[in-house]
Amino acid sequence: MKLANWYWLSSVVFAAYGFLVAAKNDTEEIKDETAKDSCPVRLESRGKCEEDGECPYQVNLPPLTIQLPKQFSRIEEVFKEVQNLKEIVYSLRKSCQDCKLQADENQDPGRNGLLSPNTGALEETDDNRVRELESEVNKLSSDLKNAKEEIGVLQGRLEKLNLVNMNNIENYVDSKIANLTFMVNSLDGKCFKCPNQENTQPGPVQHLIYKDCSDYYTIGKRSSEIYRVTPDYKYSSFEVYCDMETMGGGWTVLQARLDGSINFTRTWQDYKAGFGNLRREFWLGNEKIHLLTKSKDMILRIDLEDFNGVKLYALYDQFYVANEFLKYRLHIGNYNGTAGDALHFSKHYNHDMKFFTTPDRDNDRYPSGNCGLYYSSGWWFDACLSANLNGKYYHQNYRGIRNGIFWGTWPGVNEAQPGGYKSSFKEAKMMIRPKHFTP
Ligand SMILES: *[C@@H]1O[C@H](CO)[C@@H](O)[C@H](O)[C@H]1NC(C)=O
Ligand SMILES: *[C@@H]1O[C@H](CO)[C@@H](O)[C@H](O)[C@H]1NC(C)=O
Ligand SMILES: *[C@@H]1O[C@H](CO)[C@@H](O)[C@H](O)[C@H]1NC(C)=O
Ligand SMILES: *[C@@H]1O[C@H](CO)[C@@H](O)[C@H](O)[C@H]1NC(C)=O
Ligand SMILES: [Ca+2]
Question: Is 99 a member of any domain?
Fold first, then answer.
């Protein structure tokens, strides 16, 4: 009975080990296929496989060659298998010890003297085998852990490399086009002096491309209106609302709240494309905001008014929103103004450098939920907020979750009100202008 038990146990261990080796062979075949087909980066087998069946792989990415760990492919699955195996070995060891103890207790003293030497020897070899296996599994497991870490580092490096190249190319093309635009614009200016146009008054140099509202201001437009802008010639132009009055004018408005006519509880796609009515309430759209700010020389102005008629503002000397690949990450500069610096409220509530989150896309820093869902808004949530200008529009004070339009440094905003009421805002507006623009 005891012997049979032992053999059964060890065969389970061997079966599990065999399965692992088979899985490794299988993954090597898959590796080769993917390398041939779709991968722009070549992944090839290097040198002879070692006796244990492990083959070295490397990635060729001129001018960079990175040695990959042998256990490159399907690392997660293999890792899991090893974990399982480890658990099996542990439980086997445990049940072996238990059964050994039990056996010792039940032993007939008379027969013990006769059989003991034999069974003892068997137990020892099997026990050694289990130990050997266990140490092998441990080694493999730690190898895989290392490999996993190396892959993580490698992935990070590849991503960076990709970005650097993309940015270089984009900057190069951008500077060429800027040069071209400059030349065409100056040619345009010369045309006013052509002989057949002598009667025409020489006007200011016409911009052929209006990148934002400040360009319209420069050519003399002074009414707050909808204008068509082309912040990046590579993409089509689009309409924006221009504020030509506040602080000298030339502002491109990104967001406006004033009556609650538009629902701001929206999806990632909605926030990406923009929604609402440019003359009333709207979100211009993350893609457009990215294009308008990618030159990285924009300042942001936020205007707020509460239901008591108090009007305050916040100015940030830089405002930039990254692209969708970087989840429209927010970059804001230093604060100046009267409303308080709610975007950099504290070490724990800081919206700078945060990704954009919507109720259906959780990129926030709150681990156990989605701030966008909880606060009914798309915003650059931290974990979660000290400011949220896309919250629900309340026409008066409200109770419950603070999911209204919120600015954490507003005078009296954090003071408890009778009945747990929270104050809301009548108007909110976000707009941008080039840093070096002088009205
Ligand atoms: C793995 O593949 C090699 C050669 O392709 C073969 O000799 C070996 O038996 C295979 N191992 C297993 C466990 O299938
Ligand atoms: C545009 O390019 C030409 C030729 O490369 C150069 O001479 C000129 O200075 C550039 N102009 C601007 C505004 O960059
Ligand atoms: C706003 O839209 C959300 C999501 O579609 C919906 O759950 C909510 O009821 C809407 N709110 C109002 C006031 O219509
Ligand atoms: C803040 O803005 C005001 C008004 O434009 C200006 O006078 C002041 O120097 C600014 N302060 C800082 C710290 O930039
Ligand atoms: Ca979260």
Answer: no
> First and final CA of the chain: distance in angstroms?
96
The tokens describing 423, both together, are: 């104050």
Q: What is the CATH number of the domain that holds 336?
A: 3.90.215.10
Helices and strands of the chain, counted as H and E runs: 7, 16
Give the number of the ligand closest to the Cα of residue 176.
2
Give the pTM.
Answer: 0.57
Residue range of the domain that includes 326: 213-434
Say if ligand 3 is within 6 A of residue 146 CB: no
Cα 175 from chain centre? 28
d(CA 32, CA 49): 14
Verify whether ligand 1 is closer than 6 Å to residue 22 (CB atom). Answer: yes
The vertex-207 CA angle with 205 and 211, nearest 5°, equals: 150
Nearest to 60 by CA among 52, 48, 68, 72: 68
Instruction: Identify whether 410 is part of a domain.
Output: yes
Pocket mutation for ligand 3, best pick of 263, 358, 373, 376 (most atoms within 8 Å of C-beta): 263
CA distance 392 to 377: 7
* Total number of domains constituting the chain: 1
pLDDT at 408: 95
143-166 pLDDT, tens per residue?
A: 777 777 777 777 777 766 666 655
User: Please, which residues have CB within 8 angstroms of residue 302's CB and are 6 or more apart in sequence?
Assistant: 313, 314, 315, 316, 337, 339, 389, 407, 428, 429, 430
pLDDT at 151: 73
Quick one: which ligand is closest to 178's CA?
Answer: 2
Residue 191 located in a structural domain: no
- DSSP run (H or E) holding 268: helix 268-273
Write down the residue that tokens 């056996």 correspond to. Answer: 103
409 domain-assigned: yes
Where is mean pLDDT largest: 56-60, 70-74, 109-113, 304-308?
A: 304-308
Tell me the residue ranges of DSSP E strands in 195-347. Answer: 225-229, 238-243, 251-257, 275-276, 282-283, 298-306, 311-316, 319-321, 330-332, 335-337
pLDDT at 3: 39
Read off the DSSP letter of residue 325.
G
